[in-house]
Structures are given as structure tokens and as C-alpha cells.
Amino acid sequence: MGGRKKKTKVCDKVPVEDRISQLPDSVIAEILCHISTKDAVRTSVLSTRWRNLWESVPELDISSYRFSSDVNSFVSFAERFFDPHMKSWVRKLRLSMSKSPDDKSFLNRWIDAVSTRRIQHLDLRLYHFNSSDSILPLSIYTCQTLVHLQLHHAILVNAEVVSLPCLKIIHLEETTCPNEATLEKLISGSPLLEDLTLIRFSKHIAKVLQVRSQTLKRIRINESSAKVVIDAPLLQCLRTVIHSTKNFEIINLGFSTKLDINVLYGHGTTYRTSLIHGILTDISRVRDLDINHYFWKEIFPYSKSGPVPQFGNLSHLNSRFFVTDLEMLPTLLESCPKLESLTLELIDPYMGSKTKKEPKVIFLTVPECLVSSLKLVAFKRSIPGNEGEIELLRYLLKNSTILEKLKLDVYYTKKAECDFLKELLTMPRCSSTCEIHCSFIRKRYW
């Protein structure tokens, strides 16, 4: 009996710390970035090891929408992250609030606090605030580490000095600016700025906004009340929404700039000839274009009253078309003698309707680009069983001399898919090297 060893009971074993808890604080902090900030705080109850780790989380995503209680309780909860005595790094702050709290000074305190903690990404979304409660402090203009600034429904104050040496991205949406000079200082005070977005920004200030930058590469505009004059020699892409007038002017527009134009079209809307001519002139200068179907609806009658400008530089075209308007495509292709890539996103205006109009796509001559330059054709959102589209495919395959690839998004049932493939394989191809790539999508998302 004396030689028998005593068995150790499970309850007598010394608790072993879990593997995650054994990781360095900095690694755990990065892991906590992948859950909500509210849940990151809750980890403090796990053990004494976790009690204060939430304070080191470098990314804060704080939203009043995640609180069932009122906005004042939310401010009380969030206040712990902006203690002026905390020195931990705040790499990113995303703050979303649904209305003004009773505490009117919280926004100044919080922004001032993160400005001293090496913040890089600041995203503020202040919905349904009283106008005086969403005024931002002056410290936002002199944050030396800020890289990305995104503001929704905020109010900027008059800027005397702007020094944002690291800022590369500015996104201003429904944000009020006291004057045009403040915007100009914000841009000029950001010597590394590459990306600028202005959405419904100018309604309270000038009718003309001047955007001058030696570093800007991408600009997005959605302005209906002001014209934006752009002087940016490195501009690579302009995305804009046009309401009723041309809302942009690019000084020294180069052929390397991509234009992405969305022309809004309301019932009864008619666009002036000057607007159409202005957009056509810009298109004729660029190499890469993304444009929607409403613009082509205006171009077609315009082309009948005079010659359509030749888009001699255009090599990449991405366009949305109503399938009923494909009859305009021959005119378009004849205007693009150097086109290399054509992407068509087809839209069925009669989806769900028994009354349908089949377009007649008639090519009087083979466009020059089909013979000498067109290498890629892509059809997005193909319309099942549409004869006009099938005939267009047949024509492009038969007449495109150097076509290398045809890409199709095919929205067919399984049986119709087999019939379509059989028909596609029988279509004659002018280019012996042309490959056909089909992506079969069972359900259509419009």
C-alpha cells in the first residue's frame, strides 16, 4: 500500500493561462481591433490580465447606434477612451452619432485628445445634430500625424493656419464650410494630398470652388450648386455626378486622366446643347472613360443634328446601356478609332414587363476599332434571351480582327445556359486567338 502513488485530482491542477493571454499586449490590442469597441471593453472582466488591455486598442469604432439607451449614456461610456492622461496610440477613430447630447463640449475634448495621440484616420458622422453642436475644433487643422480625414454633417470653422503634413485623403460630405478660402487652405496645407471627395459640400459658400494641388491624383465630386475648377497636373481620375449643368472644369485636362461620369436623368429632364458639347469635348481628350446610359440617350439625337466629335484618344470604355438603346452603339464605336477595351453593362428597362422592345443594332460599315485595335469586350449583366444582344455578340465576333478575349456574365437557367453555349460556339470568329470566358450567375441582382 505504501508504494502506491497518490493520483492528482483534476481540481488540484494549477490553472494554465490560455494561449491568447500569453501574447504580448501589443498583439492582443491588434486582435481586439477586429471586434466592436464596446465588446473590447467587455474583455476587461475576463481576468486581471485583461483588465486594462482595452485601453491600448489602436482603432476605435464608437457608435451611438449600438446603444439601446440614450445618447447621453453613450457619451458617458465613450468618455473613458478620451481621458487626457492616456498616452496610448489611437491609430483610427470612427465616431457615429445619431443626435446631439446634452454635453456640448464633448466633440472638442475628444478630437483634441486624439490629436495628441498620433491619430492617422479620423472619421466623424454626426447625424441630426444641432448646427452649433457639430462645430469642429481648430486642432483638426494642425494634426501632424493625420493621414485620412472623413467628415459627414460636420461644421468647419474658419482656418487661419492649416498644417497637415501627412494628410493624403479628404472626404467631405454634407459638411459646412464658412468660406471658399478655408477649403483652399485645407487643400494647400496638405502637401501630400492624393484623394479628394466633395459631396453636397458647397451649398453654403461660393458658386465656384477652386481646387489647386500639385499632388492630387483622384477627385470625386457630387455638387449641384457649384462648379469645381480643378488645377491638378497629376490628376489620374475624376468621378462626378452631373445633375443639370456641367459642374467641373479641368485646367489642362490630359489624356492620361480617367473620367467617370454619372449623368442623372429625371422625368422631363432635357440637357442644354452646351452641356453635351462640353462633356463631349472632355471625352475627346481622355484615354479612359466610364459613363452611364442616360448620357448616350442625349448624344444620339445630338449626333443627328451635327457630327459627333471623334474620341481619338479613347482606348478604354466602360458604359452602361439600356438594352433597348443598343442601336446607338454603332455610332459610338465609329467615334472611337483606337478603342482597345469595351465593357458594356446592359440594363433591361422592361424586366418583369410583358411589353418589350427589341433593339436593331445596324452597322452600315465595320468600325475602324474592330479592325485595328479592339482586344477585349466584356458584357456585364447579360439579358437572357435578348435577340439584340445575341446579334451584337455575333457581329463583334465575326468582325473583330484582333479580338483576344470576350467576357460574358450570363444570367440564364441551367437549361437555357446549355442552349446559349451551343449557339455561342457556332458563331464564326474573325480572330483565331479569341478566348471566350463565361461566368454563369444563377440569380440576377439588379
TrEMBL record:
Organism in which the protein naturally occurs: Cardamine amara subsp. amara
Name used for this protein in its record: F-box/FBD/LRR-repeat protein
All residue ranges annotated as the F-box domain in the record: 17-65
Pfam families xrefs: F-box (PF00646), FBD (PF08387), LRR_At5g56370 (PF24758)
Gene3D superfamilies in the cross-refs: 1.20.1280.50, Ribonuclease Inhibitor
CDD domains assigned: F-box_AtFBL13-like
SMART domains: FBD, FBOX
